[in-house]
Q: What sequence folds into this?
């Protein structure tokens, strides 16, 4: 069973860059799967940020415009998120998750989730 | 993007009762690509239902999903103590995938 573990600084200054990493265990990041980031502001709902395939192909939520960069490191079996120009509105629990794939087809819902990491944007 | 509206915001019920949660989409969800998740405090969401009505691996059969188009329902047949949590719907038929605001099922 795939396990995901997100990690990174818990505090980022306004206008800075949020950087998180998700370590994948129990499976290969090079499997036929997409890997996503989802966030949840305190007490609120969920927002999909974007996804990456092991080839490096990415998709992201247009609401975050060009602030998002998602990358993959196959040698470390992990993928990463960078979110630039952060404001207090980016304060949230950030989850990494795997997209459900079966018989070579992937559907953009999420069967495995990491435990989440809280990132606070504050000076 | 598709906006999902969940109702009610809070459902107060007793163990053993039936829970009916609604998720309404701002436009038709293609191929009934709708999922439901359960989230407990301090935990990540857990996948319950996908394809509007298919239970995920290991999910008890007291959980069932139904609906199509713009109206979807999650039903919990007889609430167990561990079912009191927040439930989110998510559509994945259009990009970007979007989530509803959640329904909290609390103990009455």
A:
């Amino acid at each position: 069973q795939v396990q995901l573990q997100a990690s990174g600084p818990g505090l980022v200054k306004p206008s800075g860059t949020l950087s998180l990493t998700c370590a994948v265990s129990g499976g290969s990041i090079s499997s036929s799967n997409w890997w996503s980031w989802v966030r949840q502001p305190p007490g609120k709902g969920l927002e999909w940020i974007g996804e990456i395939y092991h080839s490096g192909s990415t998709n992201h939520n247009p609401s975050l415009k060009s602030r998002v960069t998602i990358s993959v490191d196959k040698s470390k079996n992990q993928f990463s998120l960078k979110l630039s120009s952060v404001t207090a509105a980016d304060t949230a629990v950030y989850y990494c998750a795997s997209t459900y794939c079966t018989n070579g087809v992937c559907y953009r819902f999420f069967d495995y989730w990491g435990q989440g990491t809280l990132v606070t944007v504050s000076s | 993007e598709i906006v999902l509206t969940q109702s009610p915001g809070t459902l107060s019920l007793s163990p053993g009762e039936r829970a009916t949660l609604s998720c309404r989409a701002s436009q038709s969800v293609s191929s009934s690509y709708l999922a439901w998740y359960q989230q407990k405090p301090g935990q990540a969401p857990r996948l319950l239902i996908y394809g509007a009505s298919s239970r995920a691996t290991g999910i008890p059969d007291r959980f069932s999903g139904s609906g199509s188009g713009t109206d979807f329902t999650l039903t919990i047949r007889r609430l167990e103590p561990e079912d009191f949590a927040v439930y989110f719907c998510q559509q994945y038929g259009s990009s970007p995938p979007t989530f509803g605001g959640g329904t909290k099922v609390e103990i009455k």
